Amino acid sequence: MQTPSGHPVESTSAKRLVVLASGGGSNLAALLAAHDDAAYGARVVGLVTDRPAAGALDLARDAGVASAVVALKDFDDRAAWNDGVLEAITVFQPDYVILAGFMRILAPGVVRKFEGRMINTHPALLPSFPGAHPVRDTLAHGVKVTGCTVHLVDDGVDTGPIVAQTAVPVLDTDDEPTLTERIKVAERALLVETVGRLAREGLHVTGRKASIGH
């Protein structure tokens, strides 16, 4: 595991965000674009990735945001890797943990440590089409409307309480790449809006129902 690096500038009143990402970091980029506005209410203070070559690392470096690489190959087993991820997240003292294209399933112990504060995005209207291939499944089922979901992370796969959703029409001409790209555009906007509202207004969860503000 690499040690955190970089020197983020932050507001003392802004909620602290730690982003977990495995790829290019398009959702991270969207959050970084929003967080310099003091009115947004949240600031990315750290990035944790499982891939040493993740493009998200370049985005974090350019923004002066600290980062940590926790690669599975560097640990004896999956349990030790999960401990490493937990340690890397905890160093940043986050108010919210944002899974933004993080392609590993975290152990229940990691999830419970941040219960009610760990947020994930999913490119479908949950509870429909959970799992690893939601866009492919959407097209295979011939649905006319899909979308994206921001939800809390729990011990299941895409089963946590839903915080926010937005719809995206499925066009007759769509294939997996075109529909994926349109969902990603909607997903970035929804994530930025939802995280900002969470930071400013707070989150209330009762059973399966999650609501922002009072």
TrEMBL record:
<feature type="domain" description="Formyl transferase N-terminal">
    <location>
        <begin position="15"/>
        <end position="195"/>
    </location>
</feature>
<keyword id="KW-0808">Transferase</keyword>
<dbReference type="InterPro" id="IPR004607">
    <property type="entry name" value="GART"/>
</dbReference>
<keyword id="KW-0658">Purine biosynthesis</keyword>
<dbReference type="InterPro" id="IPR002376">
    <property type="entry name" value="Formyl_transf_N"/>
</dbReference>
<feature type="binding site">
    <location>
        <begin position="25"/>
        <end position="27"/>
    </location>
    <ligand>
        <name>N(1)-(5-phospho-beta-D-ribosyl)glycinamide</name>
    </ligand>
</feature>
<comment type="function">
    <text>Catalyzes the transfer of a formyl group from 10-formyltetrahydrofolate to 5-phospho-ribosyl-glycinamide (GAR), producing 5-phospho-ribosyl-N-formylglycinamide (FGAR) and tetrahydrofolate.</text>
</comment>
<dbReference type="InterPro" id="IPR036477">
    <property type="entry name" value="Formyl_transf_N_sf"/>
</dbReference>
<feature type="binding site">
    <location>
        <begin position="103"/>
        <end position="106"/>
    </location>
    <ligand>
        <name>(6R)-10-formyltetrahydrofolate</name>
    </ligand>
</feature>
<comment type="pathway">
    <text>Purine metabolism; IMP biosynthesis via de novo pathway; N(2)-formyl-N(1)-(5-phospho-D-ribosyl)glycinamide from N(1)-(5-phospho-D-ribosyl)glycinamide (10-formyl THF route): step 1/1.</text>
</comment>
<protein>
    <recommendedName>
        <fullName>Phosphoribosylglycinamide formyltransferase</fullName>
        <ecNumber>2.1.2.2</ecNumber>
    </recommendedName>
</protein>
<comment type="similarity">
    <text>Belongs to the GART family.</text>
</comment>
<dbReference type="InterPro" id="IPR001555">
    <property type="entry name" value="GART_AS"/>
</dbReference>
<dbReference type="GO" id="GO:0004644">
    <property type="term" value="F:phosphoribosylglycinamide formyltransferase activity"/>
</dbReference>
<dbReference type="GO" id="GO:0006189">
    <property type="term" value="P:'de novo' IMP biosynthetic process"/>
</dbReference>
<feature type="binding site">
    <location>
        <position position="120"/>
    </location>
    <ligand>
        <name>(6R)-10-formyltetrahydrofolate</name>
    </ligand>
</feature>
<dbReference type="GO" id="GO:0005829">
    <property type="term" value="C:cytosol"/>
</dbReference>
<dbReference type="Pfam" id="PF00551">
    <property type="entry name" value="Formyl_trans_N"/>
</dbReference>
<feature type="active site" description="Proton donor">
    <location>
        <position position="122"/>
    </location>
</feature>
<feature type="binding site">
    <location>
        <position position="78"/>
    </location>
    <ligand>
        <name>(6R)-10-formyltetrahydrofolate</name>
    </ligand>
</feature>
<feature type="site" description="Raises pKa of active site His">
    <location>
        <position position="158"/>
    </location>
</feature>
